[in-house]
C-alpha cells in the first residue's frame, strides 16, 4: 500500500504523559485508601508496605518504558485499592453497628429486668438504673460492667421470686431456675430479646454515617437516638424511630454524594499538579475551597473545568510532539526540514517536504489542529523538470512507501509508533499536482533530530 495513507502517530512523549497521569491517579487512590484505613483504625504497616510495593512496581514499568503493561496494571491497582477501601469500610460499619446493637440490647435487657423487678415488688438496683441511663453511650469495659449488672439482676429476679406469683412470673421462674443454673446475659437475650427491625436499621444508618470519608457531624442524630431510647413508651419510641430513620437515610444519601464528589475532586487536583500553568493552579485552589466547603455543585463545576484543562493540555502538547516527531523522523531520512515548518504545519494544516535533488515530487503531510490523524501522500509538481506520467508517478509512490516504512522504524526506535488506518495501493489514485516552490539553496538548515517538548507530567 504505497499510495495515500491516513495514519495515527503515537509519540514517546504522549505515552509517557499518559502513563504519568496513571501514576498520579494510582498515587491518589493509594493515599485515599490509607486515609480511610487510618480513620477506621485499620491501618497497618502491612497495608503501607502493600501500597508502596504496588506503586514501586508501576514505577519500574514506567522506567523500563513498558507503557501498555503500566496502563493495564495501573487500572487494576486503582480497582484493587477501591475494593480494599470498600472492604475496610464494610468492616468498620459492621463493627460500629455491632457496638450500637450491643448497646441497644443492653438497654432493652436492663429496662426489661428493671420492669420485672418492680412488678415483683423487688427494689431496682442503682447500678441497673445507671445501665438504663448510660447503655447507649457506654463502650468497652463500662459496657461490660453494665452487662454484668444485668446478669446479677437476672439472678436477683429469679432468686427473689415471691411465693405468690402470677402465671407469667411462674413461667419465667420455671424457665430461669427450674433446677438449673441461672442464665447468662447472652442466654437471657437469646430467649427474651425481641429484634426491632427499624431500630436495627437506624443503627446501621448511623454506623454508615459515622464512617463516611467526609467526616460528617452526626451529633444531632445520635442525640435524637439517645432521646428516643429514653422514651418509656414503646409505641412512641417506634414512631420517633421511624422518623429518625428517614432523616438518617436522607443524610446518608447527601453524604454519599459529597463523598463521591470529593474523591473525584481530589483525583483531578492530583492530576492538575502536573500542569505548570496559572490556570491549573487556580483551578486547584478552587477545588480545595470546594472540598473544604463540602459544596457538591461547586466541586462538580471545578471538576469539569479541571478535566477540560487537562484534556486540552494533553491534546495540544501531543499535537506538537506528533508533528515534531514526524518532521524529525523525515529529517533523519534526508528530507529537507527547515525552521518554521512545524509552526506553518500547525497554522495551515498541511505542509510539503522534499528530499534534496528531487524537485518534481514531495510528500504532503496534512492534519487537524490536534494532529490526532495525519494524511501522508505523494504530490507532484505542476511544472516538473522532466515530464510526468502515470508510470513515473507510480514509481515515485513506491519509493515513498519504502521511505514511509523507514520512518515508522525511526519513530519506533524513539519510543513511538505509527498505526495505519487507511491506505491505497500505488497508482489507484492519481498523484495530486500542486505548485512546488524551488528547492531551497540552503538545505543544510534542517532539523537533524527531533526536538522534544515535555507533556504534562509530575
TrEMBL record:
UniProt source species: Methylobacterium komagatae
Protein's recorded name: DUF222 domain-containing protein
Lineage of the organism: Bacteria, Pseudomonadati, Pseudomonadota, Alphaproteobacteria, Hyphomicrobiales
Chain positions covered by the region annotation Disordered: 437-458
Amino acid at each position: 500500500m504505497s499510495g495515500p495513507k491516513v495514519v495515527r502517530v503515537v509519540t514517546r512523549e504522549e505515552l509517557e504523559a499518559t502513563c504519568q497521569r496513571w501514576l498520579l491517579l494510582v498515587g491518589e487512590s493509594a493515599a485515599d485508601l490509607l486515609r480511610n484505613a487510618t480513620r477506621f483504625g485499620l491501618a497497618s504497616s502491612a497495608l503501607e508496605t502493600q501500597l508502596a510495593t504496588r506503586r514501586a512496581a508501576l514505577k519500574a514499568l514506567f522506567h523500563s518504558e513498558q507503557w501498555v503493561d503500566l496502563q493495564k496494571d495501573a487500572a487494576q491497582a486503582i480497582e484493587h485499592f477501591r475494593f480494599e477501601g470498600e472492604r475496610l469500610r464494610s468492616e468498620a460499619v459492621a463493627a460500629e453497628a455491632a457496638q450500637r446493637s450491643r448497646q441497644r440490647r443492653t438497654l432493652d435487657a436492663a429496662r426489661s429486668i428493671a420492669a420485672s423487678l418492680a412488678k415483683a415488688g423487688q427494689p431496682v438496683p442503682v447500678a441497673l438504673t445507671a445501665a438504663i441511663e448510660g447503655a447507649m453511650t457506654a463502650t468497652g469495659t463500662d459496657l461490660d460492667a453494665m452487662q454484668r449488672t444485668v446478669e446479677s439482676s437476672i439472678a436477683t429476679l429469679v432468686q427473689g421470686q415471691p411465693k405468690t406469683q402470677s402465671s407469667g412470673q411462674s413461667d419465667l421462674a420455671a424457665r430461669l431456675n427450674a433446677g438449673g443454673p441461672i442464665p447468662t446475659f447472652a442466654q437471657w437475650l437469646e430467649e427474651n430479646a425481641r429484634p426491632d427491625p427499624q431500630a436495627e436499621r437506624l443503627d446501621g444508618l448511623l454506623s454508615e454515617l459515622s464512617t463516611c470519608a467526609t467526616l460528617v457531624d452526626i451529633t444531632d442524630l445520635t442525640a435524637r437516638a439517645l432521646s428516643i431510647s429514653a422514651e418509656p413508651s414503646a409505641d412512641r419510641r417506634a414512631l420517633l424511630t421511624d422518623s429518625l430513620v428517614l432523616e438518617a437515610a436522607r443524610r446518608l444519601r447527601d453524604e454519599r454524594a459529597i463523598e463521591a464528589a470529593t474523591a473525584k475532586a481530589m483525583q483531578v487536583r492530583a492530576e492538575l499538579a502536573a500542569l505548570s500553568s496559572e490556570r491549573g493552579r487556580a483551578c486547584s485552589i478552587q477545588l480545595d475551597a470546594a472540598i473544604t466547603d463540602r459544596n457538591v455543585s461547586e466541586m462538580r463545576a471545578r471538576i469539569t473545568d479541571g478535566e477540560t484543562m487537562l484534556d486540552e493540555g494533553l491534546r495540544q502538547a501531543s499535537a506538537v510532539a506528533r508533528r515534531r516527531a514526524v518532521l524529525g523522523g523525515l529529517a533523519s531520512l534526508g528530507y529537507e526540514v527547515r525552521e518554521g515548518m512545524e509552526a506553518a504545519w500547525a497554522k495551515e494544516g498541511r505542509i510539503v517536504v522534499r528530499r534534496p535533488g528531487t524537485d518534481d515530487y514531495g510528500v504532503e503531510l496534512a492534519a487537524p489542529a490536534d494532529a490526532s490523524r495525519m494524511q501522508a501522500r505523494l504530490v507532484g509538481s505542476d511544472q516538473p523538470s522532466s515530464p510526468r506520467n502515470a508510470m513515473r508517478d507510480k514509481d515515485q509512490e513506491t519509493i515513498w512507501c519504502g521511505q514511509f516504512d523507514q520512518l515508522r522504524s525511526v519513530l519506533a526506535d524513539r519510543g513511538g509508533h505509527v498505526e495505519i488506518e487507511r491506505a491505497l495501493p500505488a497508482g489507484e489514485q492519481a498523484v495530486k499536482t500542486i505548485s512546488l516552490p524551488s528547492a531551497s539553496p540552503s538545505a543544510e538548515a534542517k532539523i537533524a533530530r527531533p526536538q522534544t517538548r515535555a507533556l504534562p507530567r509530575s
